[in-house]
Amino acid sequence: MSAVSPNQTQDLAWLLRGLGEEVPVIRGSVLLSSDGMLKAAHGFDRASAEQLAALASGLFSLGRSAGTKFDNNNEVRQVVVELKFSQLFISWAGYNSVLAVLARAEADPAVVGFEMARLIKAVRPFLHTAARPAATTSDHDRSI
């Protein structure tokens, strides 16, 4: 399984930029690991991108929990949050990866969802995030 190396992470911003150019109602987007680590962003300053990544990770995790409890499956296709002036779309983007897109309120959800799915399908192997190694006891002891 292919994973994004650290030097490829910055290269992924052009994919998000292209998505924004394809769908002008998109205000910005972030690619993140499923545990909330920001991998790439477009349209946000660093602090806002990191905050959106953390929020998206939490909402995606809630979706997985709901699926496990009520659908006997933890696979989440998409989470959509409709705000007063924006719409937030969160989709699985590959192994251990999530794509979050913030669009203006007037965005057509079908168009945004279709373009997100098309992007993910086209480049999914490059969006995978390798699992982080578990901390060992000695690693924990050193940080104290």
UniProtKB/TrEMBL annotation:
Q: Which domain of life is it from?
A: Bacteria
- Entry's InterPro entries? Mycobact_SerProt_Inhib_Rv3364c, Roadblock/LAMTOR2_dom
UniProt-listed Pfam families: Robl_LC7
Domain Roadblock/LAMTOR2: residue ranges: 13-103
What is the protein named? Putative regulator of Ras-like GTPase activity (Roadblock/LC7/MglB family)
Organism whose genome encodes this protein: Thermomonospora cellulosilytica
